[in-house]
Amino acid sequence: MKLFKSLINLLFPRTCAACGNLLLEGEDTVCTTCRFLLPKTGYEQHPDNPLAQMFYGQMPFNAVMAEFFFSKTGKVQHLIHGLKYHHCRENGIFLGQEIGKSLLQAPDYQGIDFIIPIPLHPKKEKIRGYNQSHVIAEGISGIMNIPIAEKCLVRSVFTATQTKKSREERWQNVKDIFELKNPEKLKRKHVLLVDDVLTTGATLMSAGKALMQVEGIKISVATVACAGN
User: Fold this and answer.
1) CB 214 within 8 A of CB 66
2) Tens digits of per-residue pLDDT, 120-165?
3) Chain-centroid distance, C-alpha 179
4) Which of 18, 58, 59, 78 is most buried, by CB atoms within 10 Å?
5) What is the DSSP code string of 55-76?
6) pTM to 2 decimals?
7) Cross-strand partners of 22
8) 223 with 194: CB under 8 angstroms?
9) Distance separating alpha carbons of residues 144 and 160, to the nearest angstrom
10) Which CATH code fits 38-227?
């Protein structure tokens, strides 16, 4: 079996999803060096972090965090791009696992009942093959042993990409695009809303607005990345 695996690795070498270098024995998805160098924010330990401040007076989220800082040419960008556009689901699982490990140590993220990934419109999900936020949520779920609330939040309106839109244009683009399903399941529950990248917060605001219709709900937010410091 070991000889067979060595032969497979020789014919189809496994490479790091962040830097492209060959993975060593025992390494999976991302090499040890990249794991060490990925720019963590530490925001989960600081309730008054800049991301949480974005929503003050607008949406009463319990806590807001991003696991990594994001730059257009960095390793995190490469991982997210592979997940969204090159069918690299393993990237999303890895990123979700990293979030989960951090949240296990964060006081504001204890007692979560369900994970809710930001949904894609069915047309876009069919084109992509999966919802990248759901894959990230799967990684978090595996680490934290928290179930994903399936079909409780749906995207009922197909929208254009948010790329290159201003803050106001982003908000108008995603305003009222989410629909709440089976609200009784979420009544008085603490839910974790999961997305890939937090930029202006417009999508999370829109999703939060829909979820706030549930009686007694408590919403925390976790994303893979935010703009670099």
Assistant:
1) no
2) 999 999 989 999 999 999 999 999 999 999 999 999 887 766 555 6
3) 20
4) 18
5) TTTT---SEEEEEEEE-TTSHH
6) 0.90
7) 15
8) yes
9) 33
10) 3.40.50.2020
